[in-house]
Amino acid sequence: MVAPLMAEIARLQRELEQANNSIDDKLDKLGDAGLGVVGLTKRLGDARAKIIELEEEIARLSRKDDRRVRRLERLRCQKCQTKVNTRALIQKLDADERCLSQG
Q: What range does the domain containing 43 cover?
């Protein structure tokens, strides 16, 4: 009568050990996935910071370009103080560039 009980206890212990191993494996996989998410989240945060930095740089360069255009629009000949038509010059340069790139 003791032998069948011992056999059943041994069987239950094996099942318990298999279940524990399965749980350990699943916990390990969850841990690995969690670390992957943490790394991805950090890279995403870094990318967002870089995007903000680049957007600020674009805005700064755009303001700088706007200031240059305004200065060019006020450009005058130093000798006679005649206002220089910079728009006509730019159009002429653009036309020349188009001719050069087509030829």
A: 7-102
Cα-Cα-Cα-Cα dihedral of 81, 82, 86, 87, to 10°?
Answer: 150
Is 103's pLDDT higher than 60? no
Domain membership of residue 13 (yes or no) is yes
pLDDT tens per residue, range 18-39: 999 999 999 888 888 877 788 8
HSE at residue 38, side-chain half, CA atoms within 13 A, is 6
Dihedral angle, C-alpha 14, 19, 23, 26, nearest 10 °: 100
Instruction: Give me the number of domains the chain comprises.
Output: 1
2 is a domain residue = no
Structural domain includes residue 62: yes
pTM (predicted TM-score)? 0.52
Residue 28 lies in a domain: yes
The DSSP H or E segment spanning 92 is helix 86-102
